[in-house]
């Protein structure tokens, strides 16, 4: 499982209203499993190897992305009401894959929706994080993680139990991906 982790932050410019990770992170769980909507992009990433009841081997991958497409300032009118129920500054995207090792077949699927009308979302409620798009979902709680993907060619549903604490990548969770701060 991989999760983008956030740390010391600063807006890139006064006009973009986005926050960027600029150094090692002071992470707290389970809070930092949840969405951080002031950042452009974050993701929740799972990969694994499993077998079915008959012993057949499979590999799987499920990733949810949250991508900010606006600054959120125009979502409400002067009375505080949303200008449209469809209006959202957040997109939720997901990619799932299943490899049937014995049959030497690989399946993949993608899905995307704006975070609106309970079609898609990324939310944190107490110690539970939920990311979903239609009938695809991730529910992350301290004692278990539930994953579900359902496509035309394949589906899977897993309940997993963490066996150890989260592992921080890079420098205390800070892992720069390019030369620019926003990379």
**Structural class based on helices, strands and sheet pairing:** mainly beta
Number of strands: 12
The level 1 CATH classification of one domain is Mainly Beta
CATH topology of one domain: AttH-like fold
**Total helix count?**
0
Strand order, biggest sheet? 1-4-5-6-7
Report Rg: 18 Å
Helix/strand order, N-terminal first: EEEEEEEEEEEE
> Any guess at the CATH architecture of one domain?
Beta Barrel
Write up this protein.
With 183 residues, the chain is mostly beta strands. The protein is 0% helix and 45% strand. It has a 5-stranded antiparallel beta sheet, with no helix packed on it. The chain has a domain at 29-73 and 85-160: Beta Barrel (AttH-like fold). It has no helices and 12 strands.
Can you summarize this structure?
The chain has 183 residues and is mainly beta. It has no helices and twelve strands. It starts with a strand and ends in a 23-residue tail after the last strand.
Question: Secondary structure elements and their pairing?
Answer:
Elements: E1 2-3, E2 9-11, E3 19-21, E4 41-51, E5 57-68, E6 90-100, E7 105-114, E8 120-125, E9 128-133, E10 136-141, E11 144-150, E12 155-160
Antiparallel strand pairs: 1-4, 2-3, 4-5, 5-6, 6-7, 8-9, 9-10, 10-11, 11-12
């Amino acid at each position: 499982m991989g999760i983008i982790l956030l740390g010391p932050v600063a807006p890139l410019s006064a006009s973009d209203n986005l926050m960027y990770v600029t150094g090692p992170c002071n992470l707290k769980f389970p809070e930092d499993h949840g969405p951080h909507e002031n950042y452009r992009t974050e993701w929740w990433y799972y990969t694994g190897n499993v077998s079915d009841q008959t012993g057949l081997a499979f590999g799987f991958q499920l990733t949810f992305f949250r991508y900010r497409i606006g600054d959120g300032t125009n979502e409400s009118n002067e009375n505080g009401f949303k200008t449209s129920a469809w209006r959202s500054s957040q997109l939720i995207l997901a990619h799932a894959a299943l490899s049937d090792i014995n049959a030497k077949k690989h399946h993949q699927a993608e899905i995307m929706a704006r975070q609106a009308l309970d079609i898609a979302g990324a939310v944190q409620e107490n110690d539970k994080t939920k990311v979903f798009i239609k009938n695809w979902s991730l529910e992350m709680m301290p004692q278990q993680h539930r994953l579900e993907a359902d496509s035309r060619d394949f589906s899977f549903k897993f309940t997993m139990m963490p066996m150890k604490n989260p592992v921080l990548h890079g420098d205390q969770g800070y892992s720069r991906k390019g030369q620019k701060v926003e990379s």
